[in-house]
Design brief:
alpha/beta; Rossmann fold; six-stranded mixed beta sheet; 10 helices
């Protein structure tokens, strides 16, 4: 059962979970925007995410949600605005540098190394934390073997969290669809993020897999004490697991609030269902 979270306003007029009030936000986005030629894809996007918040980014198809994720990970360079991740600006950073700063993501279309083993896919995500030097890795010195052993142990711990240790040596591409989705989340967690971005994590899942995903998202937040931000079209998942929700339409925020507030917001209802005709 999901315990109801009290959301409270902070000085920036954002709302975050009450439990995060004594901690600095993990993510602060101010007036973010990007133009492609003459087209404004995202404009004046501003949100604050609490350090252990589960928040949702929703909106109709083409609203600009994945573009926001691409901006947050510096796949795209913003035309304007600021992104502060764990107290530091991401301006001028590469995607890899932003990942090392503490942001990880999954994708709409699964991006695994299909011909590699499950455990090796997870170990790929640990490149941020493996300190062993290049020369030592070439000559396989003692430091290399120690780092490799530690990486394997950590990978198995993460796989065990999702009940996947029995497939650790299987090829990633041989896994069922739902298991591949879970593996992509495990690999993202292996980077030790402060916030993980999930881009349509329930896409292609059946109802039982979606229910399991909902529970896993809560477990990720509670176990790793990190924030989770998700793009999702499954409203049962969004309303069931998210504490704060931001709604985009045509690249602009049209509503922010709790699930109860978003469900009752007439502007959101109109964006999804269209305007009712007068009788």
């Amino acid at each position: 059962m999901n315990k109801k979270t009290k959301m409270v306003e902070v000085p920036s007029h954002a709302i975050i979970p009450e439990r995060d009030l004594d901690k600095s936000p993990i993510l602060e986005i101010s007036h973010l925007g990007i133009d492609f030629g003459g087209l404004t894809a995202v404009d004046d996007f501003s949100i604050t995410v609490g350090r252990t918040e589960i928040c949702g980014l929703i909106g109709p198809n083409g609203a600009g949600k994945t573009t926001v994720f691409n901006l947050l990970t510096n796949v795209y360079t913003p035309t304007r605005g600021a992104i502060i991740l764990d107290g530091k600006s991401t301006a001028g950073k590469s995607t890899a540098q932003v990942n090392r700063m503490g942001i990880a993501r999954t994708f709409q279309n699964i991006r695994l190394f299909s011909n590699m083993s499950v455990i090796d896919n997870v170990k790929v995500g640990m490149h941020n934390s493996i300190k062993e030097g290049f020369v030592s890795s070439i000559f396989h010195g003692m430091g290399y073997f120690k780092a490799e052993k530690a990486a394997a142990e950590r990978a198995l711990e993460l796989l065990d969290f999702f009940g996947m240790t029995d497939v650790a040596n299987d090829e990633a591409g041989s896994l069922p669809y739902g298991a591949q989705r879970r593996l992509e989340i495990v690999r993202a967690l292996a980077t030790n993020p402060g916030i993980i971005l999930l881009d349509e994590p329930a896409a292609g899942m059946n109802p039982s897999e979606t229910a399991e995903l909902m529970e896993n998202i809560r477990r990720i937040r509670d176990t790793f004490q990190i924030a989770v931000m998700l793009i999702e079209h499954d409203m049962n998942l969004v309303m069931g697991v998210c504490e704060g929700i931001c709604v985009l339409n045509y690249g602009k925020i049209i509503a922010k609030g709790t699930p109860e507030e978003i469900k009752a917001n007439p502007t959101v209802i109109e964006a999804y269902l269209g305007k009712r005709k007068e009788a």
